[in-house]
Amino acid sequence: MIGKAYKRFYFVSLSVLLLLSVYPLVNGVRIAWLSIVNGAVKPEQYAKYVVPYTAIC
User: pTM for the full model?
Assistant: First the structure.
């Protein structure tokens, strides 16, 4: 029973970390893509809300 609780906690924690990491990662990929395609990124192409991303762990 205890092992099952640890597995559930592990997967829930991992899911939360992945969910919190999606927005900054997607914006980073988008900005990198715009930089590669256009050679530069215009200020209006940046995300409207930028999350100050620091490591959670």
Answer: 0.57
